[in-house]
Amino acid sequence: xLFTILLTLLTVxxxxxxxxxxxxxxxxxxxxxxxxxxxxxAGYYVAREKGFYQKHGIALTLIRKTPGDAPYDLxxxxxxxxxxxPLVVAIQQRALGxxxxxxxxxxxxxxxxxIGRASAGLRTPADISGKKVGGSAMFFQMQFPAFSRRxxxxxxxxxxGNSVNLFLREGIDLIAGMEYNQYHTxxxxxxxxxxxxxxxxxxxxxxxxxxxxxxxxxxxxxxxxLCIGFVRAALEGWRYAMTHPDEAVDIVMDHIRxxxxxxADMAHQKWMLKTVKDLFPASRTEWGKLSEAEYLxxxxxxxxxxxxxxxxxxRDFYKNGAGNAEE
Length: 327
What we know:
327 residues; NMT1/THI5; metal ion binding; pyridoxal phosphate; transferase activity
């Protein structure tokens, strides 16, 4: 999967110039979210704003990007130390020989859904056959095949970007999107929820874990303490964001407007933060952890779909950077 990239390096470690409050030298590290600046990444922005990276000994540089090199390409090229991607993408890349490792699984399930107009007679997955379905190239390569096989679907795929405009103009019958993002954008564009039929992939046992934190195997081997510190700071940021949602959204909005210089809709960011909360485990002691069963479920789906030939070993793939998530 290819993207067009613009990278803007923004040093976000604060005015302590590489020194933490105790006078100890901070370790430099860089982090790249995999998409536009938004509340999907609230925990990382909050961790920056509240000084949690410094608390864990890190002088963090945030690498912003617009669509361009995929996150795993940034790792391969040593252009970032840490990044995010869905589990299925990471497994595919590991199977292809990219020596990345998971150090924390942040979203334990997926917000992925197919969104259609109820007026088109969409009631069950079988009704999708014959319809025009819009989605990204990654969606049709990585996520849709298992759903299609389960319900014996034949659809007319339409490759689209992040915009929902083609759906709003009725150029396609259904659109693939995230509940925390495109679904709310469609509702904000004038649709009532009752006018839409949604097929949440997790309702059909295909909610494979979403955003996880990844680094290169060599980074983990050379400095596991740095990796663990990054994960703990990020989880601390997420805990704070979930217990202080209004402040967290303010931090996200400030970041979008003053750092990313992008337009922002506060109502949309509030919806996003509220909705991604459902993607975390109920027990905070499980935050950041990836179970072998979930890993094998996702990897097996990729193998059955012919996307990978061999399943990478779980212990080679996953390093538990979260430890005790409540620490």
